Queue: 2 jobs
Job 1
Amino acid sequence: MEIHSYRDLKVWQLGVDLAAEVYDVTRLFPKSEIFGLSSQLQRAAVSVPSNIAEGHARGSTKDFIHFLNISLGSVAEVETQLLIGQRIEYVGSDTVDQLLHKYVELGKMLRALQRSLEARA
């Protein structure tokens, strides 16, 4: 498959899917968290595919790799914030485990894409 747009990238597609899942989970958080953990978690989740898109749109491999690094940082943020949500009992263990597994896979995909781009640079 030829890549014409960031929207063609599986890693971007998964990032968007996971951001939507995070929004579903945070809807169950207490309303008092709307500007706290729930907002932080949503922003970090949205940051992952957003940075993939921005990096791809920049047009340079160096920039794309840089923005993939930012996405990886956001993956770590989401994972941390999910674990905090679990610890304070806003989200159940099963949900966190499922999301963490998906975010680990997303991180692996991001690192593989980075390596591929670095090898061609």
Note: The chain has one domain: 6-120.
Job 2
Amino acid sequence: MKPYDLPEAMLFDLDGTLFRTETLLKEVHRRVFATLREEGLYLAPEPPVERLLGSLGMLLEHIWQKVMPDGSQAAQDRANELLLQYELEELENGRGELYEGVPEVLGELKSRGVRLFVASNGLESYVKEVPRLRGIGDLFEGFYSAGEYATRSKVELVRLLLEQSGAKSAWMVGDRHSDVEAGKGNGLFTVGCDYAGFRREGELDGADVRIARFSELLDLVRGVGI
């Protein structure tokens, strides 16, 4: 693998990059639609969970438009509330796993002086609680989410992160087109994570490099001779 210049910072998407979201979301999805049915807000058949997994990386409002386009605004608003509630409950109960090697790789990057950040289009509580509850929260300098900063795109979120952190060079690491777009839109080197399994064809087109396992990030870093 070709060596690359070591960045001052690395920016990580959360779902499908650090966190194996399907290990949490399948049960959460079931609970959300069971509650919507109980409350009479959505009586159509439960959409397949793959539709929700395939929407990760979008802004939340766009997710529900794709997952249940036939749902009322009230149903979509309630789904937002339930999604966060059930995600946090299931996380507290121990459901949901990081990808293999994530703690070790992040720990080594931090020990080498790389500043670590999360940049996600998710809700603030979720983006902060997943790393905390899975024991990697202290490795990050900051957590940036569309939910907290009300950004309208990942490009805008990453621009804000760079401005506030003062980082002069960074890599954007993620599994979605929005991550590649956010990196390219801010002049960053982009690493496409090609292991999540629920992305669309062409999702990572344009990434500078792709990795098939999270641990391959260290292959890139070690190639610069630090």
Note: Residues 103 and 136 are 6 Å apart (CA to CA).
